[in-house]
Each structure stands twice: as C-alpha cells, then as structure tokens.
Design a protein that fits this description.
Layout lengths: L4 E8 L2 E8 L15 E4 L2 E4 L2 H23 L4 E6 L1 H13 L7 E6 L5 H19 L1
Parallel strand pairs: 5-6
Antiparallel strand pairs: 1-2, 3-4
C-alpha cells in the first residue's frame, strides 16, 4: 500500500490472487507556467489555495480508504504493509469502522518494496498471523 495504489495478495485455496486499487491522487504534475504555489496568468499570479488543495486530497484519501475497506471486509486476518504515515491514517480509519472491530489486523511499516519483496513479506506475515490465530 502507498499513497497512489494498494496491491492485494490473498491466498485462496492454495492459489495466489493479486489485485490492485488506485487512490486517484495524482502524482505531482507540472503544467507549462505552473510553479510550486500557483499558475502565472498573464501579468498576474493566481495561487492555488493550499487549504482547498489539502481538503481535496483528504477527501480523495477518504474515498480510497473506503474502497479498501469494502475490499477487505471478507477477510478475518489482514496484514497491511506500507509507509508509516499512511498506515497510521488507515489504522485510524479502520478503528472508526465498526465492522473491523472483530478482525485481526497487523500493520507493518515497509517503504519502496518490489513485487517479489511484497509477496515474500506477505507470505512471512501470513505464517505469523496463522501462528497467532492457532
């Protein structure tokens, strides 16, 4: 999981299924004439209001977390790997969702993982979760 997309690794009946959900947050895109804080329009500078931009990003993150929750509702044991701040925000979101109170959730910080590292870590944490549940 990162700010732009979440990958799922769900072993089902001995087979591995993978899926992904995109967040909708655009990476930093620069348009001609745009600077760090605003856009030049003729001789005037029109700034992007930082407050409105942060509100839009927060709304997009809420929708992203809701779509992740819908996808994760079918599972009893969940392992979430990702950057620390995003994990903290997602953990807070799950605590507010009452349908996740009875589920076992494990949050582990991992940054910049390749797909093979992700699959290995998922297998390792799956074994760890099964050991705790038994």
């Amino acid at each position: 999981m990162n700010h732009h997309e979440a990958h799922f690794f769900a072993p089902n009946n001995g087979t591995q299924q993978e899926a992904s959900i995109e967040s909708g947050i655009e990476r930093q895109i620069r348009f001609p004439g745009e600077t760090g804080n605003g856009v030049y329009l003729g001789n005037f500078r029109s700034t992007n209001n930082e407050h409105h931009r942060q509100n839009r990003e927060n709304e997009i993150m809420k929708c992203y977390f809701k779509s992740l929750c819908i996808r994760l509702r079918d599972y009893d044991a969940i392992v979430v790997l990702g950057p620390r701040i995003l994990l903290h925000r997602f953990q807070n979101h799950l605590q507010n969702d009452k349908s996740f109170n009875s589920k076992k959730c494990l949050f582990k910080q991992h940054d910049k993982m390749t797909e093979t590292e992700f699959q290995l870590a998922a297998r390792e944490y799956k074994k760890e979760m099964l050991g705790e549940l038994l």
